[in-house]
Amino acid sequence: MSPATQQDIQPTNRIFEQEVAGKRDVSALDRVYTVDAHILPPGAPMISGRENIKVFWHSAIEAMNVRAVKLETVSFEALGDTGIEIGRATLEFAASGAPLRSLRQSRVTS
Questions:
Q1: Phi, psi angle pair for 49, to nearest 5°
Q2: Using alpha carbons only, what angle is made at residue 21 by residues 20 and 24, rounded to the nearest 5 degrees?
Q3: Which fold has domain 6-109?
Q4: pLDDT, tens digit, 9 for 90 and up, residues 43-75
Q5: What is the DSSP letter of 105?
Q6: Rounded (5°) CA angle 62-27-12
Q7: What angle do CA 76, 48, 24 make, to 5 degrees?
Q8: How many CA atoms lie within 13 A of 11 on its CB side?
C-alpha cells in the first residue's frame, strides 16, 4: 500500500473495523500494519512490530470482549510511500454495550 492521502487509509481502517474487530480475525492485521509498525495504546508502553501488535490486539479483543470498533483519523501525514496516522478508536464491549473513546495508536503503513 502506498498511502498518498488521508482518504487512502480509510479502506485499511475498514479492514480493522470489519475483519479484526468484527470477525475477531487478527490475521487481517497483516493488511493493516507494516512489519515495523508501532502502536501507542492508552496507558501502556508503545508496542513495536506487527507480530507484537497482533498479540496485543488479540489479547485486548478477548479480554475486553470487544464487539465493535470504529476508527477516526485525527491526523495523517504522507512521507513518500509511508503514511503516518494518528487517530481515535471507539470500542464497544459485548458485556456493557457502552462505547469507550480512547487515543488510538499511530500506525505506519507503506
A1: 90, 135
A2: 65
A3: Nuclear Transport Factor 2; Chain: A, (3.10.450)
A4: 889 999 999 999 999 999 999 899 899 999 988
A5: E
A6: 100
A7: 80
A8: 7
Residue whose C-alpha cell reads 496485543 in the numeric block: 56
Q: Which long-range contacts (CB under 8 A, 24 or more apart) does 96-100 make?
A: 97/67, 99/70
Q: Could you read off the pLDDT of 14-41 as tens digits, one per residue? A: 999 999 999 999 999 999 998 999 998 8
d(CA 18, CA 52): 21
Between CA 34 and CA 106 the distance in angstroms is 12
pTM check: above 0.85:
no
Residue located via cell numbers 469507550 = 100
22: left (phi over 0), alpha (psi -120 to 50) or beta: alpha
Give me the torsion for CA of 74, 23, 56, 44, rounded to 10°: 40
